[in-house]
Amino acid sequence: MSIMPDTWIREMAQQRGMIEPFVEKQTREGVISYGLSSYGYDARVSDEFKIFTNVDSVIVDPKNFAEHGFVDRKTDVCVIPPNSFALARTVEYFRVPRDVLVICLGKSTYARCGLIVNVTPLEPEWEGHVTLEISNTTPLPAKVYANEGLCQFLFLKGETPCEVSYADRQGKYMKQTGVTLPRL
User: Fold this and answer.
1) Residue pLDDT, tens place only, 75-87
2) Candidate list 11, 133, 148, 163, residue with the active-site label
3) Reduced to 3 states, what is the DSSP secondary structure of residue 144?
4) Does residue 153 contact residue 101 with C-beta atoms inside 8 Å?
5) Which residues 6+ apart lie within 8 Å of 17 measured at CB?
6) Under a CB-based contact definition with an 8 Å cutoff, are residues 91 and 131 in contact?
7) HEC profile for 90-124?
8) Which 8-state DSSP code applies to residue 146?
9) What is the CB neighbour count within 10 angstroms for residue 18?
10) Cβ atoms of residues 13 and 42 within 8 Å
């Protein structure tokens, strides 16, 4: 398995729509950087956020998710409360090739502020907007800036295509758009 370089990512994005919209070089002037990097792609967070709240003393249950356990915000700057959590999504829509697994890591600018980004791997032939999980591990409110970089995706190419892809299994998060909540 090899990590794929900028030339491969650019070709797959421009010729096969792997990342749309695609920014082919790092954009960093006055913003948290996003776009193509040496061995990855720094994705932007959209302006759609679901911020968890405990106003109604809701229990977070992945088998029976209560939608009233968060508040929706469409904003350029999302403030995540101390020791809290928010869901968001990428601006970019991804289409993963059959022989590729994509992993995501948070950007150091946010990590150094105590914000942790968690995203499960993007499996072969998965497509959609990526739902981003953002944890504020600090005792202070923390800002997240919409339409700026939040995380980096790394593309790992297998030696051969997989036998069964996410599309073949008809995965429950296939072609998701918007911030997608847990499904059973």
Assistant:
1) 999 999 999 999 9
2) 133
3) strand
4) no
5) 95
6) no
7) EEEEEECCCCEEEEEEECHHHHCCCEEEECCCECC
8) T
9) 24
10) no
How many helical (H) and strand (E) elements, i.e. helices and strands, does the chain have?
A: 2, 13
Per-residue pLDDT of 153-180, as tens digits, reads: 999 999 999 999 999 999 999 999 999 9
Phi, psi (degrees; rounded to nearest 5) at 168: -60, -40
Which residues fall within 8 angstroms of residue 163, CB to CB, at 6 or more apart?
A: none
The answer to whether 133 is a known catalytic residue is: yes
Give the amino acid at 127: E
The helix (H) or strand (E) run that includes residue 150 is strand 149-157
Q: Given the structure tokens 């991804």, which residue do they identify?
A: 94
Burial code (b: 16+ CB inside 10 Å, e: under 16) for 100-136 equals bbbebebbeebeeeebebebeebbbbbbbbbbbebbb
For residue 52, give both structure tokens: 């968890």
